[in-house]
Structures are given as C-alpha cells and as structure tokens.
C-alpha cells in the first residue's frame, strides 16, 4: 500500500479495491460489510429511527478521541436521543489527495473501537478522493438506523412545566480540549474530549424510567442551544441554577482565558434529559451507575412562566437570559 | 472591554512565561512585565502578563465587611503600607 | 478580622447599603460603565435585576470592537481580499459590520483570516508564510494596545519583515471627555475600566473629579467588585463628593504599568480617531510612529477606500450619553437588529440597544 492517498484510490478501479482490501476491511470488517455488495442487506422490524451526520474537525486527533470516534458516537447518540438503540451505521469518507495512509488507519481504528464499544457494525460505505487543497485531510459522514425502544415516547411535546432538567455530567470538556489545542493551551491529562457512545446509558435510563419526556445531546452550541430549542419546542420556560452547572475547574480556566461561556461549549458524550420530578431520583441513580453518567445532576426545571425562554439564576440571585448561540465559538478579548 | 485573568507563573524562558489558570497552561509574554518571576501571580491579557496580582483585595474585602457591619469607613483609609503590593506567595 | 468573609452575605449587605443610600437621595441615579467587560459581567450576574429601580447602569462606549467604524472594517476587508495577505484578528472582530459586509463574510469568500488569542500568535504565522503579508487588526483600548506594540518590537527583534498592524486602537479618557462635553449629558458618575487602569494607572482618570466634579470608581469585574464600586458611587453621590477611587487595588496602581506605557509610547502616538456612533474625537486613537512605519500596512501599502455614507438616523451617540432610550431611535428593532446592526450599541450582544431589544427595557424579568 502507498504511503499517501492518491486520486485513483477513489476512482473505483483496482486502486480503490486495494484500499478497501488492505485498509478498510481489516479495520472495519464484519460479515455484512465483507459481502461488498452495493448496499447492506439487513433485516429489521418494528419502529426504527434513522439519522445522519457529517464530521469535519480540526485537529483531527485530539486528547480523548479523533474524527473517527466522533463519527460513530455522534450518530449513535443522535439515534439514542430519539429513544432508539443504534444497530447499523454507514461510513462515507471524503479523503484529500496526499492524506497519509497511516493517519487513515488511525482514524479507522478509532471508528472500529467506538463501534465495538457501542455494539454496532459499519455495514456499508463509500470513499471519494478530492484533489490536494480541496479538503481538510478527511471528512466523514455516518448514517445510522436503530430500533426505537418499546414503550418510550421521546418528544419535546411531552415536556410540561414543573419537570426537572438533568445533565449527564461535566459540560464543555470536548470544546475546551479542541479550542485549547487550537490556541496553545495545554490541559492536564485528566481533561479530554468526552466523545462517547451514550446508547447503553440511554437504554438503562429508558428501561428504568420509560416516561422520560425528552433527550438531547448538547453538541454544537452546547447546553445553551439545546435548552433554547427545548424551551421553544415545548413552549415552557427553563430555569437553571448557575451553581448547578457542572463544569470542570480546568474547563473554566480555558473559558476564562478565551472568553467563553461553558454553557455554549460543545459536548460529544453528554445528554440532557427532561423528566417528571417524581422520577428524578430514580433516574439519577440509574445514570450514576453508568461510566458516562456518573456525574449526572439536576441542572434546573421547567416553568410555567417565561415560555420559550431559558433563564439562569446567578449566584447573586439575579436571573439572566441564556440566549441561543448566534455563531461559532471564537476567542474574545472583550 | 479587555478580558484578563489572574494566572500563576510556572516557568520563564527568555521573555516567555508559562502561566497556569485553574490547572491549564499557556505561554504568555513577559515583555510588558519584565520583573515577573516564577511563582508570581500575574494578570494575563491577550497572551501578555500585564500586572502583578496582590493580596490587597483580601485586606480590602475584610475592611469592606467591617464597614458594612457598622465600622467607620475604613477601606479607603487603609494605611499605605497595607495597600501596597504584597505579592501573593503560593 | 481573620475568618473568611461570606461573599454572598457581603453582596446582600452591599445591595442593602446601595438601597439605603439611594433612598436618602430620593431620586434616580445614573452611572455609566465605560468597559464592555463590566457590561458583560453586569449582564452575566444579572446585576441590573437585583439593583434598585432607581439605580440605572448605562453602558458607555466601552467595547473597542463595537466602536470600530465602517471605514476601518472596509479597509480590513479590502486587505483580506488581497491574494498575498493573511489577516490575524481577535474573534470579536469577525461580525463587526463594514459598509457592505463583514470579515466573516470575507472569510466565507475565501480570504485567509485567522483568529488569534494573542497578537503574538501572528509571528509564527508570518514565519511560516514568508511570501504573505501578515496583518494584525490592532484594535483595543489602553490595555490591549501595548500588546500590539510589543509584537511590533518583537517582529523587529526577530527580523520578521512580513508582519504589519492596521491600527484602530483607541484611548478611553478622550472619549469620556467627548461625552462629558455635551451639556445635556446626564451621568452621576463612572464605573471606571479596571483593566485599562492596569496600564494607565488611576491618575489618567483624575480629570473626572478635577474638571467635571464627578465621582469615578476603578472597579474589578467580579459581580461583588462591581457592587462594591456602585456602593462607593452612591456614597459619593449622597455626600456630594467627587473623587476618583481605586477599588481594584489588587491589580491597579496609581502609576499603572510603566513598562507597558513605555512600549506603547515607543511604537504609537495619539491621533484623531473615528468612533462608530460618536464620530471623530480628537487625540482619541493611536497611530504607528514614523520610526516604525515599515510595520504599518496603511503606510507600506496604502489603500484608498471610499467612505460610504450610510443611513445616519442611528442615534447611538445619544443613547450612549443617556439622552434618549433605544425606542426613540427610528432604526431600533427595524433596520438595526442584533443580526444586522448599524450602531455600536447593537453590535455587541451586551450593547445597550441589543440588551433592550432582547430583554425589553434592559431590565428583563424572567417570566414577565
């Protein structure tokens, strides 16, 4: 195998076949993928959920993960947030000419590792190669299907005033890691991207408390974006407590240096759940038994007043609005 | 404007320091604060150490506290030596 | 007193003290903060909601990014579009409007614009791209200006010949004087910018008491530090004192930071400068001195950017000086909204108009 990706690796000829046989199949192979049909032949029954997402991230490898781990976790988690258990994923790769084959192997190894952890298979895929300068090394797309867990009904329409808003752990680890790397900040090893498949956690949560009203993963735009979406869609107010927002000390440090608000930082292995108050304790008990939910806590509650808005009660007792984020995250001086 | 954070100087090489804020580290220039030494607490803005952070606010907060609790206005009358910059010792 | 002070209790006591002072005064007081970071802190801690109705905090022209005028943005965008240019900038600048577009739009069109945390991060970029001109968009007040000056000096020391600045740095005291020159200005005192004073020292603000008989308090940025400064201001308003106090002694000295001032004076000199919303203010900006002109892109590669006269109905100047509320501006909420701001008060999320637009009257109450 060559050391670098060439245009011909995406041209469908013998070079494409070689890439598939020498690199892709050894990393991801399973009986369905190994069949190398034009599409995966699957059998599923019942209600299914289906989703897709694309992944572009710089740096490609970062403490706690890589674009490969993100591509699996992101789609598995999107399915989980609909109450579905991910089963099969597709993987589309857009590679840039000159991309190192060694890096591609690392990315695919991370895809495999995350897939194994989530208990899913990559069953179909595609590879294209774009000219030098037309891409950023590698872009990935995954789509996934899974069965919706029986007896659950996840929808913002189920959210009513007086319910509790729960978060599964520390906010902002992923974005702080990435932004730290981009802007010369070194974090201790204890802080890394939280990229993780949440399907096992969600399954346990839904089995214990089937009437969870809604689940969301606070990725881009962070908790602020998710809470605003939910307040809008459910037409309730959401009031959270500043003291209750779980943020690691080091992540606060990154925020102070770069002028970020932790509520706006992306997460790749956290979820926010809204649940009837009487089920909160039970749900927290279950969540805290899972390694990805061990720091779960109540963030706040939904309210009758201020419908469509998210408020944050500050430690001084004032309430400020948590706005919908407007754009990307960039370091500020003001 | 002007976000700035207190940070501890961990290391200095040439005129570049490594400063630490809540356990995370970043390089910061000491061109604007050439007397900075390892162990000092400094205020960092846009990648530069701008000033020493002193313990004075502790004295001030205590004076303010006393004042709020009925003492005569004390804080603005702190003796000059107490107001002077005693650097925080780690 | 050795036991640890309970800051929440202290905060409540300060609030009670502020209330008591104001009640004895029997009228509304109006204090201006001239620092965007204060505005952000006040907003983030929800201080406007917990202060008595009769204490108004108004945001002055305290964000150097927001007051950067169209013509500067147009010039920066024109440089950004040149093939051999890499722009380095603070993230705050990306969405500041020029006459037609913004840097983020230029970025989308392919301009090489890199967001840096420190101006110093421009130098490695210059070294890695010897065939490009790397231009740092030098905006900021007295706090930030010495950092850009230091980078110019460092570039010279390191023999880097493709690093330049495009200066729009501004000075705070001249802008305050310009606001105060207006006889209709209604302000009872100033919350003075702590981090500007870190460089300038408190002496630069003495004019407030000496010339205008107004109190001023140099304040830190923690909610408690702001409350403390407001408390001091109300005390002085009640007693009729006009002094400039330093309530941010942990980093602010009377003399400021002499090393930073020296470096600033080496590279820059005061010049007339245009402020968005306020117009031209004499000696309120900084330009690169003759000796350092080879690092000034506007000298090395001058551009003739036409000045675009835009709708001038914007009343930000009057909003900032407290003469009118945002609702009195014909553009407010119509042509001028947060996503498409015309005046400086709408550019930043924390600007007066933006706050009014989003929270209704700047005194948003959750659920009301």
From TrEMBL, chain A:
Domain of life assignment: Bacteria
Cited SUPFAM superfamilies: PurM C-terminal domain-like (SSF56042), PurM N-terminal domain-like (SSF55326)
InterPro entries linked to this entry: HypE, PurM-like_C_dom, PurM-like_C_sf, PurM-like_N, PurM-like_N_sf
Residue intervals of the PurM-like C-terminal domain: 160-311
GO biological process, one term: protein maturation
Domain PurM-like N-terminal: 44-147
Pfam families: AIRS, AIRS_C
Family: Belongs to the HypE family.
Annotated protein name in UniProt: Hydrogenase maturation protein, carbamoyl dehydratase HypE
Organism of this sequence: Schwartzia succinivorans DSM 10502
From TrEMBL, chain B:
Gene3D superfamilies: 2.30.30.140
GO molecular function, one term: carbon dioxide binding
GO biological process entries: protein maturation
Family classification: Belongs to the HupF/HypC family.
Protein name in the entry: Hydrogenase maturation protein HypC
Automatic annotation (TrEMBL), chain C:
Record GO terms (molecular function): 4 iron, 4 sulfur cluster binding; carbon monoxide binding; iron ion binding
Tagged with keyword Kinase: no
Entry-linked InterPro entries: Hyd_form_HypD, HypD_1, HypD_2_sf
Pfam family name, one: HypD
Domain of life: Bacteria
Keyword field: Iron, Metal-binding
Biological process according to GO: protein maturation
Similarity-based family: Belongs to the HypD family.
Protein name: Hydrogenase expression/formation protein HypD
Species name: Schwartzia succinivorans DSM 10502
